[in-house]
Amino acid sequence: MKEEQLSFLIVRHDNIGDLVCVTPLIRALRKKFKHAKISVLANSYNAAVLENSHDIDDIGCYTKAKHCDSWRDVVKAYYHKLKLLVELRRRRFDYVILASPGFSPRALYMALMVNPRHIVGFVGEGERERSRYIDVPVQRRGGESLHEAQDVFRLLSPLDIHGEPPRVCISPDRQLQATVVSKLGVSSLRIGVHISSRKISQRWPARKYIEFIRRIHEKYDAEFLLFWSPGGEDNSFHPGDDAKALEIMQAVHDLPVKAFPTVHLGELIAGLSVCDKVVCSDGGAMHIAAGLGKPILCFFGKSSAARWHPWGVPYVLLQPESRDVEDVDMDCALSGFERLIQINLQQEMPEDSMPTANSQQPTANSQQPTANNTIACGLGLEFVIA
What CATH homologous superfamily does 174-385 map to? Predict the structure, then answer.
C-alpha cells in the first residue's frame, strides 16, 4: 500500500502527562510517513495537548463518565462516544496503535470497535488470550526501566522506526498566547510557578513558595506567573488551590507576581508558553512545560524520577529521601534553581568555551551531601548528581 494511503489511529486515554509522552511517537510517525493520515483518539481531559499539533490530521475526543457532573451527562457521554467510534469505524484505519505502556482492555475494546486492519500494542506473559486480537504485538518486557516516552516509543519498531525518541512537543493556541502576553510587562526573566498537584506527596507548602519567590526576585529581579487549579481543596475529582494561591498572593503583593488560575488546559499551555523557566511538581503541568521546551525545576514525591522526569529539556529534579515534596528545604530549592541557570548558560556558551572532556564535572557517581535531598540534574537523558 502506498504511503499516502496509509492511515493511523493512536489511542491514549489517560492523563495529561501520559499523552504528552506520546508526542515523540507521533512526531516520529509523521517523519517516517509524511503523507499518511494520522489521527488520535483522546478524551476531553487531555485532548488540548494536541489541538495545535502539526503532526496529526485530527483528534477524536470523548468524555469519560467520571468527568461528568450528573447521570444525564453520563448518558450523553456514552452516546457521543459510541457515535464517535462508529464514525471512526467507517474510516477503516490501517493501524490502530494502543499507545499505553501495558495491556489496556479498554483501549483494545475501542480498537476492536473501530475495526482496523491491524492493531499494534504491548502484550505480556500470561496475556496471550486477552491480547489475541493484537496482531502486531510488541513484548512489554524490557520497558520497565525506561522513561515513559522511551517505553511507548517501542511500539513503532514493527513499522521500522527505531532509536531514541525526539523531545516531547506541544504548540500553544496563538490567540490565547497573545492574550496572555498583552497582560504582561517587559521582563528579562519570567518564571512560571505551578503550585497544584493531585498527589499529597507532591505538594510544596505555600510558605516555601512565598520565600522562594522573594529570594529569586531579590537575586534575579524576576517576574512570576502563579498557576494553580481553581476551586476548593475538598473537590474529590481534582482538588483546587484557591486558598493556597490567595495565601501566596497576599504575601507577595509587593512583587511582580501575576495570578493565573487555569480552568481549561489550553489556558495553562498558553500561560506556560510565555515563561522563560518553570517551577512545579511532577504532573501534567511539568510535562506540558517540557513540551513547550521550558527549562524546569521540578519536585518529585512518591513517583519514579527515572520514569517520569521531563523529557528532552534542561531540568533539575529534587526528590527528598522521604519521598514527600514538603521536605524539600529552601537551600536545596534555591541551589536547584541556580543549577538550572548554569545548565542554560552552558547551552548558550560557544563551542570553544564549553567545558572539555577533561574538565572537572559532577557525574552520576558523585556523592555530595545535599541536605537529605537528592538533586538529579539533567539535560535530555543525562543525569548528574550535583
Answer: Glycogen Phosphorylase B; (3.40.50.2000)
Sketch the domain layout of the chain as residue ranges.
Answer: 3-159, 174-385
Give me the amino acid identity at 355: P
Two domains, one topology: 3-159 and 174-385: yes
Is residue 291 scored above 70 in pLDDT? yes
Task: Give the C-alpha separation, 81 to 90, whole Å.
Answer: 15
Fold classification of 3-159 is Rossmann fold (3.40.50)
Specify the pairing of strand 190-194 against strand 314-320.
unpaired
Residue-level pLDDT at 381? 31
Give the bridge partners for 378, in sequence order: 315, 383
Which tens digit of pLDDT belongs to each residue from 185-199? 888 899 999 999 988
State pTM to two decimals.
0.88
Q: 278 - beta bridge partners?
A: 192, 296
- Residue written as grid cell 525545576: 297
Q: How far apart are CA 328 and CA 303, in angstroms?
A: 15
Give the CA angle between residues 318, 295, 220 to the nearest 5°.
90
C-alpha cell at 114: 473501530
